[in-house]
């Protein structure tokens, strides 16, 4: 807890909250595209948002999580203060405190996004009843993949001193994720940073003749969520080992 409060003090002047608030704001502004105008759009507004959010997450979240990870490890990488810190505290406490603060940031990102989704629905006069289970699944699955991306970014920050490299990897993952969004969903199974897509809980049945679409509920991919959590746990262990073995 002492190390965690130290990380909070470090974060006071980093303005991390701007990144935390900016990520869901960017996603929601992109997802909304303006208020629904017709009755049909109001009748399927929540479904359309839950359908498009995984695609937007695939593009936005890799860069956002890379930015959060690089901000948290900024002093230790660019400032080269790891040697000094390791004389004042054990390495496990430093990594644990940063990971705990990252978990707080990720939870705040998802909570703000879900609250914004509900607020957009209220302000737009949506008539579609909200399926709480779909909303909860979207929140949990988003948090799981965000954790996977954040821990991967943290591992890169530990192994390399160039935060620009971490941002470059995040941007490359976003571009690859955008490519995966236009491929069959099975392709995303081989792209961990695009796991938002197979974890989606809403599908779209598009009729090319009438140019109309209808949304339908997809089954919850619990095994896929478990795989995501397992990969995140593996990255957590790899990051801890990297901190323990890092030469300063």
Describe the structure.
- This protein is mainly alpha-helical.
- The protein has one domain (2-245).
- The protein is built from ten helices and two strands; from the N terminus they run H-H-H-H-H-H-H-H-H-E-E-H.
- It has helices spanning 2-11, 16-32, 39-43, 45-72, 74-77, 82-88, 91-123, 132-159, 163-181, 222-245, and strands at residues 202-207, 212-217.
- It has a two-stranded antiparallel ribbon with strand order 1-2.
- Helix 1 crosses helix 7 (91-123) and helix 7 (91-123) runs antiparallel to helix 8 (132-159).
- It starts with a helix and ends with a helix.
- The mean pLDDT is 82.
Distance between the termini: 25 Å
Query: Which value, in Å, is the CA radius of gyration?
Result: 19 Å
Structural class: mainly alpha
Question: What is the overall silhouette?
Answer: elongated
Number of individual domains:
1
| Stretches with pLDDT under 50, minimum 5 residues | none
Query: Residue-averaged pLDDT, rounded?
Result: 82
How many alpha or pi helices?
A: 10
Strand order of the largest sheet: 1-2
Largest pleated sheet:
2 strands, antiparallel
Order of helices and strands: HHHHHHHHHEEH
Question: What fraction, in percent, of the residue positions are helical?
Answer: over 70%
Percent range for β-strand residues: under 5%
The overall strand count is 2
Short description:
With 248 residues, the protein is mainly α. It has ten helices and two strands.
Essential attributes:
single chain, 248 residues, mainly alpha, two-stranded antiparallel sheet, 10 helices, elongated
